[in-house]
Design goal:
The chain contains seven helices and eleven strands. With 234 residues, it is α/β, with parallel strands linked by helices. The structure holds S-adenosylmethionine (SAM). One of its GO terms (biological process) is methylation.
C-alpha cells in the first residue's frame, strides 16, 4: 500500500472512500470514452462552506468538461473554489490553474493542496479574498475565471465583482463563467453587472446541459452565466 492509500482509504461505503470520521473522498466522472477521467474530492461534511461539493460546482465542472476545447493551454483562476471540482477538471484538461479561496480559511486552502496531490495535478493554490488587493492577484491575468456558488451572500457581491472586474481588465478577451442558485436573485446580479460595466454573453439553465445521471442528484434552480467586460479592452 502506498503512503497515499494509507492516508486516504480506510473504509468503503456506497462507493465513497472514507479517510477519517466525517471526511470522505467522492469521485466525479467526466465523459464515457477513453478521453474521460475521474476527479477525487476530499469533503468534510462537518464543515460549512468550502469543504464539500455544492451542486453549482457539479454543474460548472460539467460545463468545463463539455467546453473542454476552450480549456486547453489557457490560464484559469477559480474564485471561492472550496473543494475546487471545476478548477481541477480544467487542470486535467490542460489549463494552467490557480485555485483560490478566502485567505482567512487555511483549512480550505490546505484541503486544495491535498486534492491537487491526490489527483496528481499541477495547479497553484492561493489565498485570495474578494476585494483585497494582495500582490499575487496582479500577476494572475486569467483567460477564464471560474466561480461556482460564489453569488450567495449579497453583502459580498461588491467585493466579488470588484475582483472579477479587475481580473477581466487584466486580461483582454477574458471571461467569468459562474454557476449560481437563482435564490440569490437574478435582478441583483444584473444590477451588479451594470454597476461594474459587465455584460452577460450567455445564460443557461444548468439542467439544459447536465447529463440526466448528474442532474437527478442535484436540486434547485441553478443557472450558468458567462460574463465579460461590457466594453472590452482590445
Ligand atoms: C458556497 S461555497 C462554494 C464552494 C465551491 N465553489 C463549490 O461550489 O463547491 C462559497 C465559497 O466561497 C468562499 N468565500 C466566501 N467569501 C469569500 C471571500 N470574501 N473571499 C474569497 N472567498 C470567499 C468560501 O470560503 C467558500 O469556499
Amino acid at each position: 500500500m502506498s503512503d497515499e492509500e494509507e492516508d486516504t482509504s480506510i473504509e468503503s461505503e456506497d462507493g465513497e472512500e472514507h479517510i477519517k470520521q466525517m471526511t470522505k473522498i467522492s469521485s466525479h466522472s467526466f465523459g464515457q470514452t477513453s478521453e474521460g477521467f475521474t476527479i477525487k474530492i476530499i469533503e468534510n461534511i462537518e464543515e460549512e462552506y468550502g469543504m464539500f461539493v455544492w451542486p453549482c460546482s457539479v454543474a460548472l465542472a460539467e460545463y468545463v468538461w463539455q467546453q473542454r476545447l476552450r480549456f486547453s493551454g489557457v490560464t484559469v483562476v477559480e474564485l471561492g473554489a472550496g473543494t475546487s471540482l471545476p478548477g481541477l477538471v480544467a487542470a486535467k484538461l490542460g489549463s494552467d490553474v490557480t485555485l483560490t479561496d478566502n485567505s482567512t480559511r487555511p483549512e480550505v486552502l490546505e484541503n486544495m493542496e491535498r486534492m491537487r496531490e491526490l489527483n496528481h495535478l499541477n495547479c497553484t493554490v492561493l489565498g485570495l479574498t474578494w476585494g483585497d488587493w494582495a500582490a499575487p492577484i496582479f500577476n494572475l491575468k486569467p483567460k477564464i475565471v471560474l466561480g461556482a456558488d460564489v453569488l450567495y451572500d449579497t453583502k459580498d457581491f461588491d467585493d466579488l465583482f470588484a475582483t472579477v472586474t479587475f481580473l477581466l481588465q487584466s486580461s483582454p478577451g477574458s471571461v467569468f463563467i459562474t454557476s449560481y442558485h437563482n435564490r440569490s436573485g437574478h435582478h441583483l446580479i444584473e444590477y451588479m453587472m451594470v454597476k461594474w460595466s459587465l455584460k452577460c454573453t450567455k445564460l443557461l439553465d444548468a439542467f439544459s446541459f447536465m447529463p440526466s445521471c448528474k442532474a437527478s442528484s442535484i436540486s434547485g434552480n441553478i443557472q450558468l452565466a458567462e460574463i465579460t467586460l461590457d466594453d472590452p479592452i482590445t
